């Protein structure tokens, strides 16, 4: 601290004591005695914090100057000393800007040096060249691992996309209509927005812990405490009982039990109540996100979950279902972001085969460049994405759109330069896709309600020969692509392009192109079996034109809350096995069993036949119209169950409303139960 600051703080009388310097001249003593007689300054010491601190160079200049003035004071009187103070003040004003600049520069240098010292303290002292090389390698590795699957927070909210499509006023007015009573404060999350009728989450018993960090990637796992494990066992017993009332009672007691919410969501979807199904999935996803570890960063895309762990599968399933419901609202950009998140959890294994749907959302939201970048990066890693029909056709479509847009833009601006996207490349990719998967063309045209030309319809390569040369596993992939992506091919710009390349493929086949024979051999050797992740994808997608046709080597039931567990599954829970007597007499149980994807009415008939032909004959004689009565009872039971669930979800409110936010109209709505949302 400079002497000038100390003089202002404590007065000139104490400056010699602070610095340890005794006055030797009479002039200095006169100045000191003069300052003693003056009224002491009333200075607030905290005001010094608001002043600009002097740099080291400025402090040195001040000290040198004061030393010189001390020698001059020996021959000068009190009047000369006062004038010298005035000159000193003028000098201070003239160099104020310079000292501020020097101080800021010194502060910046100090901050940088401090940061470097902290990093070196953590990582150790290394040569600058090694630091530079290490940073380059780490940056390249990080970009390779997480760059393509990084998440943008704003794209996870479907309401933002709805506002872009329909306008903010329309969406806001719709939200105001759905707004009910005041609710308590719920935790703000990235993935879903909590509804107003949701209860407080409290402590459901879920948590997430870090397992390990390997090559810059963090591996996590979900954990269930003892209380949640007890609820989970009750849920498994309820599923085994085939009585959905037991599951409803679990949600009534524990409104954030994840597997029970997912199971009831499937029941609502099969009864065509999609709004309730989507809300149940959103609530399950909200509970899962509230249990995230602080290190679990969604945006970076470098966090992994092991699907083999039984507790981790709920997040995969909830994300897939939520992505599907958001996509059904035409919020394709939001669905693409959830698909990227789902892929980032396990990009190598891809347990739910999200790679079969990422192309659809990418094309629908016009993310052509990102999709091509994904294809190029993963193809370079040996993923063989062109062996999937959806990638073979969708990459060609993305190239076509980019080439067309670039050509139109260059024509409007009258710019002549080499294009980045070439239409010839798109043509070649589409032709190769048609040659590799000839069974796609006719079902695709039929789905688009387009009558093909006679020479195309009669061409064997696209007809009977195509059906013979594809295995059942390949047929499932083709059916899945056609049923999901046929809307894309209804665009007017794509049909002439498709027709042109179909004619070109006919010419290549007639000319004996060796690529045609090569693709035929690949179709016969590959696609011999359907992996489990594709089976899971088909089951969860629930597309009526695509049948799972699960092979006989896959044993066990297919449960919607855990479809087809891995062979090397790490299980915390074991499903209870209990004998179920008189299954054939419980219509409600028959319905609940029928919602399972592997339900077979013929197998059920064989099981019931073991009860004895005499019992069946007695039932048939007593009620010749028993089948009709059973269907009526089934419909009544399902209707009553769904009504109970709607009442449970719509009347779940916090106990303490926000009185300040309630007006007269809201009070009337609260008093009238029929007006409640």
* Biggest sheet features: 3 strands, mixed
> What is the chains' assembly state?
single chain
Low-confidence stretches: 12-41, 48-62, 65-70, 72-76, 92-98, 100-109, 122-139, 580-585, 609-632, 652-677
Number of helices: 31
Summarize it.
This protein is 59% helix and 3% strand. It is an all-alpha fold and 677 residues long.
Characterization of the model:
The protein is an all-alpha fold and 677 residues long. Among the domains are: 3-101, no CATH class; 583-650, no CATH class. 59% of the residues lie in helices and 3% in strands. The protein contains 31 helices and three strands. It has helices at residues 3-10, 15-19, 26-37, 56-72, 78-94, 96-123, 128-146, 158-166, 168-178, 226-241, 244-253, 258-270, 274-290, 313-328, 332-345, 358-364, 368-380, 389-413, 423-436, 441-447, 454-457, 464-468, 472-485, 494-510, 514-525, 532-541, 587-594, 601-609, 613-622, 626-650, 664-671, and strands at residues 206-214, 217-224, 303-305. It has a three-stranded mixed beta sheet with strand order 1-2-3. Helix 10 (226-241) packs antiparallel against helix 11 (244-253), helix 15 (332-345) runs antiparallel to helix 16 and helix 18 (389-413) packs antiparallel against helix 19 (423-436).
Labels describing this entry:
disordered C terminus, globular, 3% strand, 677 residues, TCF25/Rqc1, mainly alpha
Layout of secondary structure:
Layout: H1 3-10, H2 15-19, H3 26-37, H4 56-72, H5 78-94, H6 96-123, H7 128-146, H8 158-166, H9 168-178, E1 206-214, E2 217-224, H10 226-241, H11 244-253, H12 258-270, H13 274-290, E3 303-305, H14 313-328, H15 332-345, H16 358-364, H17 368-380, H18 389-413, H19 423-436, H20 441-447, H21 454-457, H22 464-468, H23 472-485, H24 494-510, H25 514-525, H26 532-541, H27 587-594, H28 601-609, H29 613-622, H30 626-650, H31 664-671
């Amino acid at each position: 601290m400079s002497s000038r600051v100390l003089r202002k703080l404590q007065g000139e009388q104490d400056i010699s004591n602070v610095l340890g310097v005794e006055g030797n001249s009479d002039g200095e003593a006169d100045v000191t005695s003069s300052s003693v007689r003056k009224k002491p300054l009333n200075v607030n010491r905290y005001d010094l914090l608001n002043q600009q601190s002097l740099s080291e160079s400025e402090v040195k200049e001040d000290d040198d100057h004061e030393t010189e003035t001390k020698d001059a004071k020996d021959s000068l009187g009190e009047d000369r000393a006062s004038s010298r103070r005035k000159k000193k003040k003028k000098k201070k004003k003239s160099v104020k800007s310079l000292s501020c600049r020097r101080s800021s520069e010194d502060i910046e240098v100090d901050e940088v040096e401090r940061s470097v010292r902290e990093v070196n303290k953590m990582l150790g002292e290394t040569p600058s060249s090694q630091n530079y090389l290490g940073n380059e390698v780490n940056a390249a590795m990080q970009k390779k691992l997480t760059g393509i699957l990084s998440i943008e927070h704003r794209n996870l909210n479907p309401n933002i996309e709805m506002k872009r499509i329909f306008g903010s006023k329309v969406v806001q007015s719709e939200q105001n209509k759905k707004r009910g009573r005041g609710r308590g404060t719920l935790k703000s999350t990235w993935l879903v927005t909590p509804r107003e009728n949701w209860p407080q989450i409290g402590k459901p018993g879920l948590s997430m812990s870090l397992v390990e960090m390997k090559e810059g990637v963090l591996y996590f796992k979900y954990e269930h405490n003892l209380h949640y494990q007890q609820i989970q066992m009750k849920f498994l017993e309820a599923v085994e009982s085939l009585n959905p009332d037991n599951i409803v009672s679990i949600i009534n007691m524990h409104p954030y039990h994840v597997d029970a919410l997912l199971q009831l969501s499937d029941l609502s979807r099969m009864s065509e109540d999609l709004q309730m199904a989507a809300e149940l999935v959103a609530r399950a996803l909200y509970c899962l996100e509230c249990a995230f570890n602080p290190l679990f960063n969604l945006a970076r895309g470098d966090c992994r979950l092991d699907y083999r762990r039984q507790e981790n599968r709920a997040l995969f399933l909830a994300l897939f279902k939520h992505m599907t419901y958001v996509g059904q609202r035409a919020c394709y950009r939001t669905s693409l972001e959830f698909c990227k998140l789902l892929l980032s959890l396990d990009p190598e294994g891809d347990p739910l085969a999200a790679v079969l749907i990422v192309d659809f959302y990418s094309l629908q939201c016009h993310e052509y460049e990102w999709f091509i970048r994904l294809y190029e990066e993963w193809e370079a890693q040996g993923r063989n994405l062109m062996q999937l029909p959806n990638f073979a056709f969708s990459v060609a479509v993305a190239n076509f759109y980019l080439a067309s847009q670039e050509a139109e833009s260059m024509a409007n601006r009258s710019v002549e330069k080499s294009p980045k996207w070439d239409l010839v490349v798109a043509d070649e990719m589409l032709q190769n896709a048609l040659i590799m998967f000839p069974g796609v063309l006719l079902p695709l045209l039929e789905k688009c309600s387009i009558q093909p030309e006679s020479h195309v319809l009669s061409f064997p390569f696209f007809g009977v020969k195509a059906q013979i040369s594809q295995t059942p596993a390949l047929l499932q992939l083709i059916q899945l692509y056609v049923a999901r992506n046929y809307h894309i091919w209804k665009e007017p710009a794509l049909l002439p392009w498709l027709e042109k390349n179909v004619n070109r493929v006919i010419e290549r086949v007639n000319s004996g192109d060796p690529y045609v024979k090569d693709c035929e051999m690949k179709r016969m050797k590959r696609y011999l079996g359907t992996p489990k992740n594709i089976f899971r994808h088909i089951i969860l997608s629930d597309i009526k034109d695509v049948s799972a046709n699960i092979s006989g080597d896959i044993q066990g039931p297919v449960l919607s809350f855990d479809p087809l567990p891995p062979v090397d599954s790490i299980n915390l829970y074991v499903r209870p096995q209990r004998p179920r007597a008189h299954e054939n007499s419980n219509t409600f149980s028959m319905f609940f069993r029928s919602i399972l994807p592997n339900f077979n009415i013929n197998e059920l008939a064989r099981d019931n036949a073991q009860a004895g032909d005499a019992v069946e004959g007695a039932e048939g004689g007593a009620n010749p119209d028993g089948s009709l009565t059973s269907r009526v009872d089934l419909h009544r039971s399902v209707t009553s169950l769904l009504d109970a669930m709607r009442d449970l979800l719509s009347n779940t409110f916090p106990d303490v409303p926000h009185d300040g936010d309630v007006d007269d109209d809201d009070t009337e709505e609260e008093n009238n139960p029929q007006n409640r949302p």
